[in-house]
Amino acid sequence: MQRVELQIEETFAPRPVAVRQALQKGTEFLSQMGAASARLDAELLLSKALGCTKERLYLDYEMALETAVKDLYFSLLQRRARREPLAYITGEREFWSLRFHVTPEVLVPRPETELLVEVTLELAKRLEKNHPIKILDLGTGSGAIAVSLAKELDDIEVWATDLSAPALEVARSNALRHGGSEKIHFIEGDMFCPVRGQRGFFDMVVSNPPYVRQSELQNLAPEVRTWEPKLALVGGSDGLDFYRRIMEEADLYLTDRGIVALEIGADMGSDVCRLIASAGRFSPASVYQDYAGRDRVVVARKLPADAIY
Ligand code: SAM
Ligand code: GLN
User: Which domain holds residue 186?
Assistant: First the structure.
């Protein structure tokens, strides 16, 4: 480890370094430090230091870096080598083809969560309604789900909640950035508390709740376990705490035939379907697979009162 540090310092000693060389040395440094996708990370960090796009780097491949840029790039590489997530260093992550602002107060939006957005959109389009579709997003974090939905559907109103005030600030900034803020209400509070007065009101309740089992936190990548907020990750000893809480109350807040759509951990399909069945107010749940072929989203529809016996 120390040898690698020395090599990189040597590379960044006061002499001209071209983009090509900076990328090569940065990539070697990051891969020796154990970061996955080291080349891409080096490209993105150098783009950040230069204030240009990744593509631009290859047009200016032989350009010598100014000392200030070189120093900044070096400090960014060192942050990444300490396994700080790239998204926290650059302050951004792409989700649903939109660039989301992220800080260490929010979970970095994951590509698999796009499936929840996709399924929700599909179901929302099929709802037979004239007035805006009302969606509750529990634990909105960066606002990835709420903002993507607001961006896609004209006739929509979203209530996005989170226990974390700083996370809601990030979510608000993303709604402003992407032009969905007039359609989204951001409210701080514990699960359904912020919408206590809105019984029988929502057409859909969606959530990507924390679902990591407490004992499994230590097995996750250092980027996740040491940098991402525990509040966004841990779902109790069996990972199911939030599904229990959601299914205890979801039917109170949904309209008849309203839909609950939840992201789940890949091995949680049958447990979450069982929780939905034992709530006694929902149609049998469907499970959708993500692009890696893993169970990722569970959907169920609230049965109208006259269908329950
Ligand atoms: N929706 C975002 C996404 O998909 O990228 C973030 C999901 S993250 C897995 C879960 C979120 O739930 C975090 O933002 C966390 O702050 C929030 N959260 C945790 N406990 C909560 C609670 N009791 N009530 C409301 N939100 C909570
Ligand atoms: N997919 C995340 C991870 O394991 C967990 C997200 C969540 O708890 N909702 O990295």
Answer: 105-307
Average pLDDT over all residues of the chain: 94
Same domain, 197 and 294: yes
Atom of ligand 2 at shortest range from CA of 211: 8
Domain identity same for 109 and 45:
no
For residue range 196-216, what is the model confidence (pLDDT) as tens digits?
A: 999 999 999 999 999 999 999
233 CB-side CA count, 13 A: 22
- 164 CA → ligand 2 middle, Å: 17
Statement to judge: residues 183 and 150 lie in one domain: yes
Q: Which ligand is nearest to the CA of 165?
A: 1
Which alpha helices (DSSP H) does the chain contain, by range? Answer: 2-11, 19-32, 38-50, 54-59, 67-81, 86-90, 113-126, 144-152, 165-178, 222, 230-233, 241-253, 269-279
Q: Nearest residue CA, atom 15 of ligand 1?
A: 232
Question: Taking CB atoms and a 6 Å cutoff, what residues make up the pocket around ligand 2?
Answer: 110, 208, 210-212, 220, 224, 233
Do 132 and 7 belong to one domain?
no
- Condensed to tens digits (0 to 9), the pLDDT of residues 97-151 reads 999 999 999 999 999 999 999 999 999 999 877 789 999 999 999 999 999 999 9
155 and 258 both lie in a single domain: yes
Q: Which residues sit with their C-beta closer than 6 Å to ligand 1?
A: 106-107, 109, 113, 139-142, 144-145, 161-164, 167, 190-191, 208-210, 231-232
The CATH number linked to 7 is 1.10.8
For ligand 2, atom 7, the nearest C-alpha belongs to 210
| Pick from 265, 261, 269: nearest CA to 220 | 265
Nearest bound ligand to the CA of residue 213: 2
